[in-house]
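Figure S7 source data.
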Amino acid sequence: MLKDTILNLLNEQVNLEYYSSNLYLQMSSWFSYHGLDGCAQFMSEHAMEEREHMTRLFNYITETGGYVKLGQIPAPKTEWESHAEIFEDTLEHECLITSKINNLAKAAFDQADFSTFNFLQWYVGEQHEEEQLFRSILDKVKLLGDDKKGLYFIDKEVGALAKGEAPAAEPQ
Ligand code: FEO
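Tokens for the predicted MU-OXO-diiron complex:
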């Protein structure tokens, strides 16, 4: 049985993962609208991943006899100046999610809820990977620049990540 404090934090995380999914879907639309189809595909797939993160939490709460409360999901930001700004936002957002997961894991540990603490280890590992992924994309975005050639190659590079392909060659 989940303690109320842990249940509330898990429910907050459900809603936050839902928000993450909407945020990345919105970013996918921005990329499509600006002709960056590789980035759009990557963001669309990542939105689905966030939905899976939400479902995993949803199922854990349900299996543990808790009641899921889907709250109001705030509208994501819709305007960005550049693809670089979007990738800066993704890294910042993932760092926020990491801090929330860490707070949740600490609360579970402090309350001796070792089942939840153990469940959260998957998210701890996942956040490590996600921060690394978005940091590496942002590094490439800065390296390739924002002229047309840079945009072309970053779109190929990120698009290849979406399909699990080898990264495209960098411009000479
Ligand atoms: Fe569910 Fe990208 O963190």
